[in-house]
Amino acid sequence: MQVPDITWPKDAAEAIAIQQSLRQQVRIGADDVPWGLIAGIDVSYDITNNLTRAVVVVLDAVTLTPVVPPVATQIDTQFPYVPGLLSFREIPAILKALSYVEVRPDILMVDGHGIAHPRRLGIAAHLGVLMDMPSMGVAKKRLTGKYEEPALEKGSMSPLIHREEQVGMVLRSKDRIKPLFVSPGHRLSLVQSVAVVKACLTKYKLPEPTRLADAISKKPDAYMRG
Fold first, then answer.
1. Would residue 6 count as lying in a domain?
2. What are the φ/ψ torsions at residue 92 (nearest 5 degrees)?
3. What distances in angstroms separate CA 159 from CA 115, 172, 180, 182, one per listed residue?
4. What per-residue confidence (pLDDT) applies to 157?
5. Per-residue model confidence (pLDDT) at position 219
6. What is the total count of domains within the chain?
């Protein structure tokens, strides 16, 4: 895939200014975006060696099986850990991985948040704008907003509200386990984001695209140097 050539900020103040600018480009789309191919994206770190690692898998939305070999890359970590600015730490590695992906997916499903972010530009929204592709976030933990705990049965949901705006959905993906936090990133609606996650659930907590990416991310020998 072709990816943009981006100049990255040198500090948190510059990063926040970029977020404030890019948030104006986020578009929440309709409910009918085609989604035959879904890319699952996960990022991890090798702190000892100062490496950021990204994994991309592309699955058929019906069979939930890979259509091309997964890609795992690692690059030198370029930005410090700052809450709310995670995308500047992780997206450079994601873009490197996407550059090796042999097909263009319909949707980017990122382990992280979309607009469920204090400045409405979580990693999924940020990546979607940069790639100009439909994107969504599926996170294991809340970053911002308030919600009522959904019922304990799989499929139960409750809205995630921040500053009187619904920014996501809290979804119980498996009976009696902690819920997921689903939010649109770019060019997707919340309704379709939730529908895609539900369609990708199997017997596990995570939807299959990010579950497979996460599983590969735990294998140190899977990575090529970016």
1. no
2. -55, -40
3. 13, 12, 12, 10
4. 98
5. 80
6. 1
Pairing of strands 51-60, 37-46: antiparallel
Query: In a 3-state reduction of DSSP, which class is residue 170?
Result: strand
Average pLDDT over residues 132-141: 97
CATH code for the domain in which residue 34 is found: 3.30.2170.10
Say yes or no to pLDDT of 112 above 80. Answer: yes
Helix 123-131, helix 12-22: angle, nearest 10: 60
**Residue 57 to residue 210: CA distance in whole angstroms:** 8
Alpha-carbon distance of 139 to 220, in angstroms, equals 23
The reported pTM is 0.95
5 inside domain? no
Tokens 């939010």 -> residue:
183
As given in the structure block, the two tokens for residue 169 are 């959905």
Question: Can you give the residue range of the structural domain that contains 68?
Answer: 12-225
Residue written as token pair 């926040």 = 16
Do the bridges between strand 51-60 and strand 71-76 make them parallel or antiparallel, or are there none, so unpaired?
antiparallel
Please, how many CA atoms are within 13 Å of residue 208, restricted to the half-sphere of its CB? 18
Whether the pLDDT of residue 226 is over 90: the answer is no
The SS3 of residue 126 is: helix
pLDDT of residue 100: 96
What does the block give as tokens for 174? 């498996």
| CB-count burial class (<10 Å; 0-12, 13-18, 19+) for 215 | middle
- Residue 185 pLDDT class (50, 70, 90 cuts): very high
Per-residue pLDDT reduced to its tens digit, 188-217 = 999 999 999 999 999 999 999 999 999 998
Angle between helices 123-131 and 86-98 (to 10 degrees): 40
